[in-house]
Each structure stands twice: as C-alpha cells, then as structure tokens.
TrEMBL record:
One of its GO terms (biological process) is response to oxidative stress. One of its GO terms (molecular function) is hydroperoxide reductase activity. Gene3D superfamilies: AhpD-like. InterPro entries: AhpD (IPR004674), AhpD-like (IPR029032), AhpD_core (IPR004675), CMD-like (IPR003779). It comes from Yinghuangia soli. Residues 94-166 form the Carboxymuconolactone decarboxylase-like domain. The gene is ahpD. Belongs to the AhpD family. Transmembrane segments: none annotated. This is Alkyl hydroperoxide reductase AhpD.
Length: 176
C-alpha cells in the first residue's frame, strides 16, 4: 500500500508528517472519489516522483477512469493557471485584469467528474502552487455549489501534508 510505504520511508524527525498522512487520508470524511482525486492531484503537484509513484496506483484503484483523468487534468491545468494568475496578481497593475488571457482551459467546462470535485482538486493544487487568485476563485465556486468550509479545509490539509511528505522525501534522497 502506497501510504504505508511513504510513512515507513519518512525519517523520525518527520513523525508528525507520518501521523498526519495517515490521518488526512485514512480518517477523511470525504467521499472516496473526492478524497482520492484530491490525493492524486496533490501527488502530481508535489513534484515528488516518489510520492506520485506510491500514491498513483492507490488512487487509480479508488477512482473511475474518468475521475482519474479529471484529477490529472486538474493538476495539469492548474500548473499553467497558477503561474499565469499568480504572476498577473503579483505584478500589481490592475490593467492586466482587462487583458484576455488567451489560454485554453476547455477541460474546466467538461472535466469528466462532478464540477465540485474538479473545483476542489483545482483548489488543492492551487494551495500547493501558492496562487491566491486561484484559491479565491475556486473557493467561491465551491461555496456557491454548497460545499462546506470543512470540506474545503480538508482538501487543503491533504494538499499541505502530501506536499510536505514529497518535500521531505526528496530532500532526504538528495542527502544520501
């Protein structure tokens, strides 16, 4: 099981991450598809080959093919959008908001998973990538869809822990 492998490979100084990984995934109240789509999108966004290798097969076993591809699509489109919208925001010139982005984002109209799941996966990836504008946008859509704040918080906790596990394991691998 991928989660167990990752927990076993975390060094003793990262015991909190080991406990948190088990908790945010193992004790999640999210529906299975929502949970594992979040885990997969965050594993991709973590940029950790180890985390992705361990969590992708487990996610695939819990997701339909459509949801699996939608979670991967959320990570892919947010990799682009988070850079673009974060940069437009950080430049600080509101006139950029009047310019057409001109970036294709067709997947957002029909991702192959329920809108709320895709938005939650996009929000979690945006948390990892640090795009405030995207976080605000996806949170507003989720709230309009009736998604409770606790669900949004849970996705962000998954993002935080999966990313931290990836950072820790990759940095430790460089020290060996």
């Amino acid at each position: 099981m991928g989660l167990d492998v990752l927990k076993a490979e975390l060094p003793e100084f990262a015991k909190d991450l080991k406990l948190n990984l088990g908790s945010v995934v193992g004790n999640s109240k999210l529906p299975e598809q929502t949970l594992w789509g979040t885990v997969l999108a965050c594993a991709i966004a973590s940029r950790s080959p180890k985390v992705l290798r361990e969590l992708e097969p487990e996610a695939k076993s819990h997701l339909s093919e459509e949801a699996f591809n939608a979670a991967k699509a959320a990570a892919a489109i947010m990799a682009m959008n988070n850079v673009y919208y974060r940069a437009m925001h950080l430049i600080g010139d509101p006139e950029y908001g009047n310019l057409r982005a001109g970036l294709r984002m067709n997947i957002m109209a029909n991702p192959g998973a329920p809108k709320a799941d895709f938005e939650l996966w996009s929000l979690a990836v945006s948390a990892i990538n640090g795009c405030g504008r995207c976080l605000e946008s996806h949170e507003q859509v989720l709230r309009k869809e009736g998604v409770p704040r606790e669900t949004i918080q849970e996705a962000i906790k998954i993002a935080a822990v999966v990313n931290a596990v990836g950072v820790t394991l990759e940095s430790e691998a460089q020290l060996v």
